[in-house]
């Protein structure tokens, strides 16, 4: 750009050539000087209030949507922090219920210390907010893993509790023959009795001592009508000499569920329930479980 300077003291006009950068700087300085002069002038008549009102709008035009973006990110950060606090509270409560530490999972790292004054959105820029959001998302994922581990532990405890054969199989009956060596009532010779006999009336309800899967529901020469239930972890219970079977093979039963009725079928001298507990096929003394 060329500027022509004319003066009475000059013999001839002078021509100045300004580059674009110099021209821009000159205009910028002039604009700043103008704004400054307008702001420091007396404002008794209020005529310059409109000029002041234009400054935020001008700044908004220089950086469009930046503040809106920061506000949105700050709101998202606050919501994530609130969710994280609820996850922490839930984790602590569940851990207390099952008696384990929230950081029991091996993959979980020690909980980092957190705190300090609240940071306003205006004190953080977009990259800082995005970094904090990423950190919170990582912490939430780690906390979710902890909660999943606690849930799995609770489910396992529930399954084991339901599958442990400590429920009494028949009510109102007395033990007429114990586990171990005894005189066989048919042969009169010593024989090993692999369960407990509970004398009761025909038709008395028989209940599952634990939850599990019915693997046998049939009649045999020795056991008569018998139900076998697989409880998992190698445990099995047997209910023999029944008069009626109320479950079938493949049924899943719960602890305390009615499965049969007392009878005197098979090799039996009278109405009673022959009850066995086995672990990996080997007979165990049922009294050790029923007492618990």
TrEMBL record:
Record keywords: Membrane, Transmembrane, Transmembrane helix
One example GO MF annotation: metalloendopeptidase activity
Cited InterPro entries: Cell_wall_metabolism_enzyme, Dup_hybrid_motif, M23ase_b-sheet_dom
Record Gene3D superfamilies: Glucose Permease (Domain IIA) (2.70.70.10)
Keyword Signal attributed: no
The keyword Repressor is annotated on this UniProt entry: no
M23ase beta-sheet core domain boundaries: 192-286
PANTHER family: PEPTIDASE-RELATED (PTHR21666), STAGE II SPORULATION PROTEIN Q (PTHR21666:SF291)
Record's protein name: Peptidase M23
Organism: Methylovorus glucosotrophus (strain SIP3-4)
